[in-house]
Automatic annotation (TrEMBL):
PANTHER family: LONG-CHAIN-ALCOHOL OXIDASE. Belongs to the GMC oxidoreductase family. The lineage of its organism: Bacteria, Bacillati, Bacillota, Bacilli, Bacillales. Keywords: FAD, Flavoprotein, Oxidoreductase. InterPro entries: FAD/NAD-bd_sf, GMC_OxRdtase_N, GMC_OxRtase_C. This is GMC family oxidoreductase. It comes from Corticicoccus populi. It comes from the Bacteria.
Length: 572
């Protein structure tokens, strides 16, 4: 029997970016909020002298424990799904702050085209441009409507950047100037300009200077130490929930943070959601947290899993096309070309978002009339700070072991670098999330089952983008290069297919979406779901800024719901 706790107005499940934004905003508005996080609390001081690549990158110190909660994977609906045993394409954070602690810091706004991809594609190229197997749809909201929420997130994070010449003109400047221009990035910039492209320094939440945000939280200036992705920042110089929104929420007595609380079910009584059930991961005690509103803000996979376990919404059926929970599951594909040069740069220094990008082949910035794909991706070169274990590139033809490998990898460390693309993947009818009929987690619940593989659209876009990257690398003067390829099938253990979206998507129609554009469930007025799971497709950028923007919009919607006690949007 679960122990029942005191009722709250709002319970938030997961205290990463989305959850902490909602908690802070509602606490400021005077609402009674509890945030539940299955892991421990992390603070900046926990990462002092934490430059341990083996512990954090290889050992996945900040990631979900797959021995207790994994997922099963298969390439298509006819295969048997088997449990995932180690991380690769999936980087599911745990502890307070979630993935917002170990991210690189790329902070992009999606393009106007992304929000209206179906209608704009049909208008320009015709309804038969791509097969009906690709489940693209408009999001039920436009870029202009989202812009104020993008601005809120950027001001909270203190984003460092400069105007993308191919994106809409910003209403407000970036809160802080762009990061430094290095000799390596200047070479990339010059090469891009030489081939007629429009380079700019990408928007970064590794800050170029110290910044105090509107909530009074101060983020330090980046030291360019090179330990961002998969690491917490020891300087407090990377915008994250533990440096911004969680401290802001904690300033209010009406906010409570409860750690080691793993939510296993959203509870319904008499056909009404009444709260959540969670297990204390230390004592294994079970608790029921009653609440007027339940806000689900975990990882894409865990958000979808929780709705499916709780029988909220209708599971997606790929054979009939009916149902919405689990639909539109996507990854990024990452075209890459590694260049080897006869000049050196300081490879050990850098930052997660220290880079230059071009957007000429993203969205609909170029004509797709004679191409067998739509959209595209941004192309970026970063100076991340190379890691000796994970980044050991050598030219093609060199064995990956022995004396020759050691010699060539040492030579290549300061003379090689990759340019990559965050490249679109479209949702496909056979790529989806469901519950596994055989395997269970540590709590006896079915594991989430992932059904996913590359599509013909992925292959066409990947080949085109790789060609464009190669043109830039060759213009930089590469003496040799390694050109990335797309495998025959998706490999869950390869790390270049990340940014996992979909499963509980927003939209204008409950027949094709789980949520309205306030991230409120069509089927359950008092349940809101925010995160990567809310986005109907992957754009040509990292999705974090868009998730943050939706979190600010959802917080606004939850406050309206609590005050008015009704649905926010009628279905079209």
């Amino acid at each position: 029997m679960a122990t029942e706790l005191d009722r709250k107005e709002v319970v938030v499940v997961g205290m990463g970016w989305a959850g902490s934004i909602v908690a802070a905003e509602l606490a400021k508005a005077g609402k009674n909020v509890i945030g539940l996080e299955r892991g421990a609390e992390r603070k900046t001081e926990d990462f002092l002298l934490a430059h341990d690549e083996y512990k954090y990158v290889i050992g996945q110190e900040l990631m979900q424990d797959l021995s207790k909660e994994s997922m099963t994977f298969r390439s298509n609906p006819d295969e048997e799904a088997l449990p995932m045993r180690q991380f690769g394409a999936y980087l599911i954070g745990t502890d307070v702050g979630g993935g917002g602690v170990h991210w690189n810091g790329d902070t992009w706004r999606y393009l106007p085209y992304d929000f209206e991809i179906k209608s704009q594609t049909d208008e320009k190229y015709g309804e038969d441009k791509i097969s009906d197997d690709y489940l693209i749809q408009d999001w039920g909201i436009t870029y202009d409507e989202m812009e104020p929420y993008y601005e809120k997130y950027e001001l909270t994070s203190g984003v460092s950047g400069e105007q993308n010449p191919l994106a809409p003109e910003r209403n407000i400047p970036f809160p802080t100037p762009p990061m430094l221009m290095t000799p390596l990035l200047q070479r990339f910039t010059d090469a891009c300009e030489n081939v007629g492209l429009h380079p700019f320094r990408l928007p970064s939440s590794n800050l170029s200077e110290e910044y105090t945000n509107p909530d009074g939280q101060t983020i330090a200036a980046c030291q360019y130490c090179g330990f961002c992705e998969r690491f917490g920042c020891e300087w407090g110089a990377k915008a994250s929930p533990i440096t911004t929104t969680i401290p802001a929420a904690k300033e209010h007595d009406n906010f409570e943070l409860r750690t080691f609380a793993n939510v296993v079910e959203i509870t319904k009584e008499d056909d009404e959601v009444t709260g959540v059930t969670f297990v204390d991961t230390r004592s294994h005690e079970e608790f029921f947290q009653p609440a007027d509103v339940v806000v689900v803000t975990s990882h894409t996979t865990n958000n979808t899993k929780l709705l499916l376990h709780s029988d909220l919404g209708t599971p997606y059926d790929p054979e009939t096309g009916e149902g919405t929970v689990g639909k539109n599951y996507t990854h990024h594909i990452t075209p890459e070309v590694y260049g080897f040069f006869d000049w050196e740069y300081n490879a050990s220094m850098g930052a997660g978002s220290l880079g230059v990008s071009v957007d000429d082949y993203n969205g609909d910035h170029f004509d797709h009339s004679d191409l067998d794909f739509i959209h595209g991706g941004s192309i970026t070169m970063k100076q991340l700070g190379k890691r000796p274990i994970a980044e050991n590139a050598v030219p093609e033809g060199v064995k990956n072991w022995g004396a020759e490998f050691k010699t060539e990898s040492l030579k290549a460390y300061n003379t090689s670098v990759a340019a990559t693309s965050q490249c679109i993947t479209l949702p496909h009818r056979n790529n989806y999330l469901s519950l596994d009929p055989e395997y269970t987690d540590d709590y006896g619940r079915p594991l989430l089952r992932v059904t996913y593989d590359f599509t013909d659209h992925d292959r066409a876009a990947h080949e085109f983008m790789t060609d464009r990257i190669q043109e830039i690398i060759e213009e930089m003067g590469a003496v040799s290069l390694n050109r990335g390829t797309l495998d025959e099938h998706f490999d869950i253990y390869k790390p270049l297919n990340d940014h996992i979206l979909g499963g509980t998507i927003v939209g204008a129609d409950p027949e094709t979406s789980v949520l309205n554009n306030y991230c409120q469930m069509w089927d359950e007025d008092n349940v809101f779901v925010i995160g990567g799971s809310s986005l109907p497709h992957n754009g040509g950028y990292n999705p974090t800024c868009t998730v943050g923007a939706f979190a600010y919009r959802a917080a606004e919607g939850i406050e309206m719901y609590l005050d008015d006690n009704g649905p926010l949007i009628d279905a079209e």
